[in-house]
Amino acid sequence: MSYTHAPSVRNATALLLAAGALAGAPAHPAPGDPAAVRAKLSEWKVDLSQRTIAAGTVTFTVANVGSIPHAFEVEGQGIEQETTVIQPGSSATLTLTLKPGTYEVYCPVGKDSHKKLGMNTRLTVVGGTHSGSAGYGDSDMGGVHSSQMSESPAMGEHAQAIRVKSGGPVIQILPGPFPFPDSAAPILKQFGDEREGLESQVKNGPYSNNVTPISGSFTFTAWDKGAVRDSVDGLAEFTTQDGARWRLALDRVQTKDVPHHPRFGGVILGLYYHGNTAVHTPLVPTINSAVALWAFGHLYKDGALVTDNAMVHVMLLSRTRRDGDFALACWDCAKNKIEELQLQILPGPGEPKFDAPGGFLFVNWEKSSSAKAAS
Ligand SMILES: [Cu+2]
After folding, report:
1. In angstroms, how far is the first alpha carbon of the chain from the final one?
2. What is the per-residue pLDDT across 329-349, written as a single tens digit (0 to 9) for each?
3. Phi-psi region of 371 (alpha: psi -120 to 50; beta: other; left: phi over 0)
């Protein structure tokens, strides 16, 4: 691709700038043809047809090929512009004038929860005064993988760690119906094949108001360092309502996807999800979490090993239960204080149900706390 500066090209560029330029954007002519970038949004990624373009005017044609609403935002070099929400199967365009630099391109839906689940990529805009070695055009598509690799160190800069300590009343959640079935019903429709399994959880829990006070403690540290380097180190000990003493040691995260849990795995700090967000099951009210993690655990009952592959989901989240009877108090709990520590333990794949009501273990510590830890 050559970067000619024929008057006709310059005029066309000027027209496009007038039509689509942002207030305050530099008015100099773009160094090449107006760029056209196709973007595809889906759960949970943003695919760009080109990841490196020349400075100047660019039109993004954005298709939502996923199954829930998304949007498209470009941020960097003083610019922050987004499309309106794009329904599944629909498209939108966004025309911007971009100067050289690196831009974040992501889905802004759900207070950045979609972004944190992976709908985030980068666009590099290069100055066009030198020859066309910038990879502008389709030849850039072969470079996608190397571009992704080069993002890793940048992601590492955001490595964070959190230390969580249980506190307050301890409750065991027993099988029972979900108290907000009507609120969850429209969200469940978006879960396709997995809807049936979720609908049985509406009736049988584990997200119920059937709770009993127990005792125990849970402390862990979690490291959010990107999909394959996340880590956890923790220990939970509790005595369930039947008098059984359980001990769970956490030393590795779980990074494999499972149904209706996009990016089920690892450690995610600061996620807004569940409930009406369409991110993960709607059988937990809408919440903010300081940390959400998925891990394999070593589970012992009365001192004997039950499994080394217990599937564990932990969240420190907005309080969902009220004082006294600990019934679920809100369908949208996102504004509540983040102090409820949830521990859910399920048998590993192919393993028998636990000897506990409903075959699962689900324990909450209602007034827990967290602090930054060394990353
Ligand atoms: Cu999205």
Report:
1. 45
2. 999 999 999 999 999 999 988
3. beta
Residue 275 Cα to ligand 1 midpoint, Å, equals 15
Q: Which of 40, 10, 8 is nearest to 105 (CA)?
A: 40
What's the gap in Å between 4 CA and the centre of ligand 1?
38
| pLDDT for 375 | 77
Q: Taking the CB of residue 88, how many other CB atoms lie within 10 A of it?
A: 16
Distance 108 CA to ligand 1 centre (A): 6
The arrangement of strands across the sheet holding 52-54 comes to 52-54, 120-126, 101-106, 73-76, 79-82
Distance from the alpha carbon of residue 257 to the mean position of ligand 1, in angstroms: 18
CATH number of 7-154: 2.60.40.420
- DSSP symbol at 261: B
> Residue 212's beta-bridge partner residues?
172
Residues in CB range of 131: below 8 A, 6 or more apart: 3
Span from the CA of 207 to the centroid of ligand 1 (angstroms):
26
CB 183 within 8 A of CB 274: no
Write out the two tokens for 53.
């373009």
**Distance between Cα 107 and ligand 1 center (Å):** 5
Distance from C-alpha of 342 to C-alpha of 292, rounded to nearest angstrom:
10
Residue 269 Cα to ligand 1 midpoint, Å, equals 18
- pTM of this structure: 0.72
- φ/ψ (deg, to 5) at 125: -110, 125
Q: Measured in whole angstroms, how far is the alpha carbon of residue 271 from the centre of its chain?
A: 6
Kindly give the distance from the C-alpha atom of residue 304 to the centroid of ligand 1, in angstroms, as a whole number.
44
What's residue 197's pLDDT? 77
Where are the domain boundaries for CATH 2.60.40.420 in the chain?
7-154
